[in-house]
TrEMBL record:
CDD domains: MDR1 (cd08267)
Identification of the protein by name: Enoyl reductase (ER) domain-containing protein
Gene3D superfamilies noted in UniProt: Medium-chain alcohol dehydrogenases, catalytic domain (3.90.180.10), NAD(P)-binding Rossmann-like Domain (3.40.50.720)
InterPro entries linked to this entry: ADH-like_N (IPR013154), Chloroplast_QOR (IPR052733), ER (IPR020843), GroES-like_sf (IPR011032), NAD(P)-bd_dom_sf (IPR036291), Quin_OxRdtase/zeta-crystal_CS (IPR002364)
GO terms for MF: oxidoreductase activity; zinc ion binding
Annotated ranges, domain Enoyl reductase (ER): 17-330
Superkingdom, natural source: Eukaryota
Amino acid sequence: MAVPHTMRAVQYSKFGGGASDLQHVEVAVPGPTKDQVLVKVEAASINPVDWKAIQKGLLRIFAPAKLPHTPGTDLAGEVVGLGPGVTSFAIGDKVASWTGTAIGGALAEYAVAPIKSTVKRPANVSAVDGAALGIAGQSALQSLRDYGDIKLDGSSNNKNVLVTAASGGVGTYAVQIAKLGGAHVTATCGSRNIDLIKSLGADEVVDYKTPEGAKFQSPSGKKYDVVIHCADYQAFGAFKPQLASTMAKVIDLTPSPKSLVTAGWQGLTFASHRFVPFLMKSKSDDLALLCNLVSEGKLRTVVDSTTPLSRAEEAWQKQIDGHSTGKVVITVGEE
Ligand SMILES: NC(=O)c1ccc[n+]([C@@H]2O[C@H](COP(=O)([O-])OP(=O)(O)OC[C@H]3O[C@@H](n4cnc5c(N)ncnc54)[C@H](OP(=O)(O)O)[C@@H]3O)[C@@H](O)[C@H]2O)c1
């Protein structure tokens, strides 16, 4: 496949803006360096971190490396170029990738992808699925398995798990992965999504706008061993009455300085419950595992919307609004 010299991309050139600051530009196709491949992007997905941390400039010491910046870290597409020395991929491979916060680049026709966080997708894993998995899928997997000790072999049937904001990109995967582990799953979401979250396998679903939902109460009175907290920051005390008496963990996906202080204090005082600030670390093994779960029909992506690159600002605004159900995906090359 001949690679052109220039491509369409979406960029912003200052920190602190919003969807209206995204510009459609024609720029040079990037060249892959050592340990990178060049991907013709078929789909990309947007995550909260893209606007609420990276675009706001909160990570500007290292991400993005420079402005103007082409945002988006999660993509799927076809390998069309190999960096020097790359032998683990071939031209024509269909891949999924997390490009990294410093590189971004997914909202474009072509993007460079580091091989350490890029995997070949099985033939039956669509570009939309591949693009959705990067941050959301890996966060759900790592928070449950690595911090919540949920084993994917189904042997965690003695665990009660709560997933908050279960209708979001992370939550829709987390409910399914916790069920693969055999756990009893309680989930919170808005009333319009209760049936969907039950269809993903949740045993009990609570409307977060009810008094019970606001207190994270399980309808059957279950006490949680693991909480995957995907909604906005809540102090540890809000969860405490609902936790199992020994060694319960609240994995906080929206950590703040307050959660770091709480976690530090609990560590110093050898507390029996733990508040665990979480940060996703992309690993090719985990991305490959998630692709395989999708390929085997054990994990499905809930897609909120697919929007062409030419209307990327609409998808960006949808993610900012915070009411998407599942993943907000951009398709590339179908306009
Ligand atoms: N630390 C990390 O490494 C890491 C990694 C990934 C994600 N995150 C963070 O985790 C959070 C979730 O990410 P995401 O991609 O899943 O977000 P998302 O897809 O934007 O989540 C949107 C969903 O959350 C629901 N929701 C919002 N507030 C809720 C509440 N209080 N209770 C129940 N449901 C609620 C919304 O439902 P309604 O429309 O009904 O309100 C909506 O369906 C974000 O804050 C993100 O930044 C952190």
